[in-house]
Amino acid sequence: MPSSDHARNVSNLVRLGAVALVDLERARCRVQVGEMLSDYLPWVVTLAGTTIIWSAPAIGEQVVVLSPAGDLADGLVLRGLYSDQFAAPAASDTLHVLRFADGAQIHYDTEAHALQATLPSGGTAIINADGGITLNGPLTVNGETVLNGDATITGTAKATTDVIGGGISLKSHKTTGVTAGSALSGGPQ
């Protein structure tokens, strides 16, 4: 019959728990496993080489503590278990969702070939690419647009109301010195 230490070590190989405390500076967390609170343990991430992902665990997040030698003090925290507190954000085999604590979400539907990013009210998005940004496909912008630089259009520009350049309305400006025939009018007013 195994000793009590051996039995304890075997039972500690894989333990379910919930994140209780997080040390962001050291990328460690303490896990509540039943009545016991673990030491600060490293959590497992999906990428930690030349490409790195950072996402700290949430207090209350359900986790698995893996202790290869059976000693919880040497354990690793494996994240990614849905729970009542942090339920699955979708029930679809074609929809992939990344949801953040503030409500921001990124969805990609492999069946519809549709990508959607939604930010909470007041959210902002910035893309910095000093080499340029190319969008291929029709573009719809709903809202006021500010261009801080020159604009070049290869094609036709259409406006349903008016175009104003240098304070002069294309639709309602008046010209002076109009002469019938092939003569040029005066400058716009």
Report on the structure:
This protein has one helix at 4-11; strands spanning 14-23, 28-33, 36-37, 41-42, 62-66, 76-79, 95-99, 105-109, 114-118, 164-165, 168-169. It has 189 residues and is mainly beta. It has a domain at 4-79: Gp5 N-terminal domain (OB fold (Dihydrolipoamide Acetyltransferase, E2P)), CATH 2.40.50. The strands form three sheets. Strands 1, 2, 3, 4, 5 and 6 form a six-stranded antiparallel sheet that branches. A hairpin with a 4-residue loop joins β8 (105-109) and β9 (114-118). It is rod-shaped, with a radius of gyration of 30 Å. The relative contact order is 0.09.
Summarize the structure.
Helix content is 4%, strand content 25%. The chain has 189 residues and is mostly beta strands.
> Into which percent range does the helicity of residues fall?
under 10%
Average of pLDDT:
90
Gross CATH architecture of the domain at 4-79 = Beta Barrel
Largest sheet: 6 strands, antiparallel
Structural class: mainly beta
CATH topology-level fold name of the domain at 4-79:
OB fold (Dihydrolipoamide Acetyltransferase, E2P)
Radius of gyration, whole Å: 30 Å
Give me the strand/helix succession: HEEEEEEEEEEE
Oligomer: single chain
User: What best-fitting shape do the alpha-carbon axes yield?
Assistant: rod-shaped
Beta percentage is: 25-35%
Task: Show unreliable segments.
Answer: none
Find the count of extended strands (DSSP E, 2+ residues). 11
**The named CATH superfamily of the domain at 4-79:** Gp5 N-terminal domain
Continuous helix count: 1
The termini sit apart by 102 Å
CATH class of the domain at 4-79: Mainly Beta
InterPro entries: Gp5/Vgr_OB (IPR006531), GpV-like_apex (IPR044033), GpV/Gp45 (IPR013046), Vgr_OB-fold_dom_sf (IPR037026)
Pfam families: Apex, Phage_base_V
Domain Gp5/Type VI secretion system Vgr protein OB-fold: 16-82
Protein name: Phage baseplate assembly protein V
